Structure formats: C-alpha cells, structure tokens
Amino acid sequence: MQKAYSNPKKLIKHLKKGDTSAYTYLVELYYDKLCDYASNLARDDFRSEDIVQNVIVRMWQHRDKLNPDISIKNYLYKSVYNEFVDQYRKDLAVTTLEKKYVEGLDSFMEAHDEDETDKLIALIKREIEQLPPKCRETFLLSKEEGLTYTEIAEYKKVSVNTVEKHMVKAFSILREKTKEKLHTLMFMLFRFRKNLEV
Questions:
Q1: Which fold would CATH assign to domain 113-196?
Q2: What is the pLDDT of residues 73-132, one digit of tens each?
Q3: Cα–Cα distance, 176 to 173 (Å, whole number)
Q4: Alpha-carbon distance 152 to 141, whole Å?
Q5: Domain spanning 2-87: which CATH class is it, in words?
Q6: Distance, C-alpha 101 to centroid of its chain
Q7: Using CA of residue 176, residue 179, residue 183, residue 189, what is the dihedral sign?
Q8: Buried b vs exposed e over 161-193: b needs ≥16 C-beta within 10 Å?
Q9: Domain ranges in the chain?
Q10: What count of other Cβ atoms lies within 10 Å of the Cβ of residue 21?
C-alpha cells in the first residue's frame, strides 16, 4: 500500500480524501526529520516536537485545502519554519510583558513600604504552601523550576490538560488571596528568588 503513497501527488490526493493510512505514512516518513529540523531552529527538543505536532495536526485538519501540485516535503518544512517564527514572536511578547512588570515594580514599591512588601511576599509563600499537594507541586515545577506544561506532564506522567487544570486552580486560589497584587508578587518571588530568600 505504501507504493500508492510514494508518488507525492497521489499522497496528497489520499490525504485530501481523509485516508488515515496516508496520514500515518506521512508521519512515519517525515516526523523524525522534521523534529531534527525544528530542533536546529529552536534548540529545544520538547519545543521542536510541539512545533512538528502542531504543523502535522493542522495540516490534517485542513487537508481539504492542500494544493495537489505542491511539494508536500517543502510544504511541511516551510510550515515548521513558520510555526517556529510564530512561537518565537510569542516569546518576544512574553519578554515585553516581563519588562512591563519590571517597570511596574517601581510604582509597587512606592505604594508599599519594605515591611508591607515583606508581609505580602510571606503571604503568597504561605498560600503556595497551603495549596493542595498535587496542585502545589505542579505550580512549583512551573514557576520555580521553569518547566513547560508538556515537560511537567511527561515528568508527572499525566496529561497536559491535567497540568493546566492544576495551574488554573492554583492561580484561582492565589488570586483570591492577593487580588490585583498577584502578578507583581509572583514576578518578584520567582524572577528574583535568590534575592528574596532568607
């Protein structure tokens, strides 16, 4: 059956029809190669796999729009590159957000004296310790260890969805305790952790 897919145009034709065997053939043929390519771009094995999975899944979801005259190989490699660029731009946005928090620290410190700030930091530390065990561990792996949700899921042997639920629950509890100060306190606690430890 694989011979039927060895012709690029026939492969695309089968993909457009929703042939799952053609999809499996495509994944087996290109997945590892695309991961290697993505890894060279992202310098991160976990992220490279996310990039490739996003590309392949999106291609399958929109398979009816595939142009039968394209090179499927070139299409996939170009899509991986574009996905990498999109994620890189999102990272830049996060960096910009961090700069915003840094700039906002001045006004925060002006509004709170040192004793009050110390009390707020102690409050959030205490509330983190009082989170439900699995919720707390997931939260600290993300914020203290800097692991991605995918990395946490693999480490804990749970789904990414479970990790997301724990994080949402943690933020919900902490936000209720600290109100609008949560983001600034989180940034202070985990960005400058070494400076805050006694």
A1: Arc Repressor Mutant, subunit A (1.10.10)
A2: 888 988 988 888 888 777 766 556 555 555 555 555 555 555 666 677 777 788 888 899
A3: 5
A4: 7
A5: mainly alpha
A6: 20
A7: negative
A8: ebbeebbebbeebbeeebeebbebbbbbbeeee
A9: 2-87, 113-196
A10: 12
Going by the DSSP 8-state scheme, the letter that residue 145 receives in this structure is: S
DSSP class of residue 179 equals G
DSSP per-residue letters across 61-129: HTGGG--TTS-HHHHHHHHHHHHHHHHHHHHHHHHHHHHHHHHHHHHHHHHS-HHHHHHHHHHHHHHHH
Predicted TM-score (pTM) above 0.70: no
In the block, tokens 């692991």 appear at 147
